């Protein structure tokens, strides 16, 4: 049996460490050639060396995902090195945590640029490549896999910038799935929970997520998330699109997003006095939203 990702090529952003590095190793172990994109040259090269030493195929790329022209160069790197591109896994990200009342414009803009614009830039160039293939009569089995967060799905105290960007990524995924299927492209997103450099920087999380010392299942290992993404990147997942998954340890869930309730309807304008009763009743009947993280 051929490996899950036999003869497929992926760009993985932020792949020099944490979840991105785990994704790169798992993808390569399943037969994928991987472009390891990261602004940290030493970290990216270390991941590539590890993959190549294990018999896999990988190369580094140091271009900036937030620059539209440089993002085109990342796509070209895959095409020049491996002759094709099948998968874009948007993983790169940073945190600039701050309570909303104290947040600076730069802290807001940095998160929007790296997360939301970063997800747009490479995907835009990849889609142009895949669209051209489809128009030439040879549509790809193409995959866009985006990285959202529980913060984006339900909010997170002290992370309004990050939550807003990650919510935007979830919505972007739905639009990409709806628009791009005609070209042979699926789009899905993952909200992962795993041990990374960012999580281990928080003392309470570092203790909770530490690897077990008794050889038991390492619940917080990032590779637990990576295998789901490898499957979504494969041709086995051609019918799965427009989904947002949550994954941690051995747990996989589909995030059930905003839905329109039956509501109320009046063939005339409501009065303020009527709304005094109508709105509280509507809210009482609705399924409560999940609590904001940290609240």
Structure commentary:
There is one protein chain. With 295 residues, this protein is an alpha/beta fold. It has one domain: NAD(P)-binding Rossmann-like Domain (Rossmann fold, 3-Layer(aba) Sandwich), CATH 3.40.50.720. Helix content is 45%, strand content 14%. The chain is built from ten helices and eight strands. The protein has an eight-stranded mixed β-sheet, with helices on both faces.
The tally of beta strands, per DSSP, is 8
CA-based gyration radius: 21 Å
Shape: globular
Task: List the secondary-structure elements in sequence, H or E.
Answer: EHEHEHEHEHHEHHHEEH
- Kindly state the percentage of residues in helix: 40-55%
Low-pLDDT ranges: none
Number of domains: 1
The number of helical elements comes to 10
Average pLDDT figure: 93
Largest β-sheet summary? 8 strands, mixed
SS strand fraction: 5-15%
Q: Termini separation (Å)?
A: 49 Å
Any key phrases for this structure?
Rossmann fold, 8 strands, 14% strand, eight-stranded mixed beta sheet, alpha/beta, 295 residues
Task: Produce a short descriptive summary.
The protein is of the alpha/beta class. It has helices at residues 18-29, 41-53, 68-82, 105-135, 150-154, 160-180, 197-200, 203-209, 223-233, 272-285, and strands at 9-13, 33-37, 57-61, 87-89, 142-147, 185-192, 244-248, 251-254.
Helix and strand arrangement:
Elements: E1 9-13, H1 18-29, E2 33-37, H2 41-53, E3 57-61, H3 68-82, E4 87-89, H4 105-135, E5 142-147, H5 150-154, H6 160-180, E6 185-192, H7 197-200, H8 203-209, H9 223-233, E7 244-248, E8 251-254, H10 272-285
Parallel strand pairs: 1-2, 1-4, 2-3, 4-5, 5-6, 6-7
Antiparallel strand pairs: 7-8
């Amino acid at each position: 049996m051929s490996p899950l990702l036999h003869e497929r090529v992926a760009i993985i952003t932020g792949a020099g460490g944490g979840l991105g590095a785990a994704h790169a190793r798992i993808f390569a172990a399943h037969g994928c050639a991987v472009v390891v994109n990261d602004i940290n040259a030493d970290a990216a090269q270390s991941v590539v060396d590890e993959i190549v030493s294990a018999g896999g195929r990988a190369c580094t790329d140091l271009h900036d995902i937030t620059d539209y022209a440089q993002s085109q160069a990342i796509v070209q790197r895959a095409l020049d090195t491996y002759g094709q591109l099948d998968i874009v896994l948007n993983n790169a990200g940073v945190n600039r945590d701050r309570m909303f009342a104290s947040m600076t414009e730069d802290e807001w803009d940095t998160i929007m640029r790296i997360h939301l614009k970063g997800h747009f830039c490479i995907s835009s160039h990849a889609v142009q490549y895949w669209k051209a293939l489809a128009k030439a009569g040879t549509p790809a089995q193409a995959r866009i896999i985006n990285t959202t967060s529980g913060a984006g799905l339900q909010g997170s105290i002290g992370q309004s910038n990050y939550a807003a960007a990650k919510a935007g990524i979830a919505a972007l995924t739905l639009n990409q799935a709806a628009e791009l299927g005609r070209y042979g492209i699926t789009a899905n997103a993952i909200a992962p929970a795993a041990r990374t450099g960012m999580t281990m920087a928080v003392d309470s999380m570092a203790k909770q997520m530490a690897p077990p010392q008794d050889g038991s299942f390492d619940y917080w290992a990032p590779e637990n998330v990576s295998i789901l993404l490898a499957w979504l990147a494969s041709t086995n997942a051609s019918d799965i699109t427009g989904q947002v998954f949550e994954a941690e340890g051995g747990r996989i869930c589909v995030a059930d997003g905003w839905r329109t309730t039956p509501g109320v309807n009046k063939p005339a304008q409501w009065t303020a006095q009527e709304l005094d009763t109508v709105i509280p009743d509507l809210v009482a009947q609705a399924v409560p939203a999940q609590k904001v993280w940290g609240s």
